[in-house]
Amino acid sequence: MAILVLTACGESNTRKEIARRKAALEEKQQTELKKAQEELQLTDSLLLIAEKELAEMTPEVEAHKKALKATPEELTALTQLRVRRDSIRTQYEALGLKIRYIRKKIKEVEKLKSEKK
Fold this sequence. Notes:
It contains 2 helices and no strands. It is mainly alpha-helical. Helix 1 runs antiparallel to helix 2 (about 70-115).
């Protein structure tokens, strides 16, 4: 009889622990989603700024290149701006993928919940 009581208590504790972990996972997913969305907004702003700067600088440097008057500093600055823009774009795309992945996992958890009910 004592073994049955101890086993029953152990099962309820295990179920409670599983429920706590599931709740913690859901909270972590929501937190990560919000964090990634905020970071995506900031990255989007930085990307727009970098693209604008590049669009402003490119025609001037290209005109200097055609006239064979482009300085090494101009060319280097244009190249660095392109690298910066590409880096920000890569970060933007990675954050977008992260957000999609988190949303997919949240939907999977919600689907499992609805199937159990």
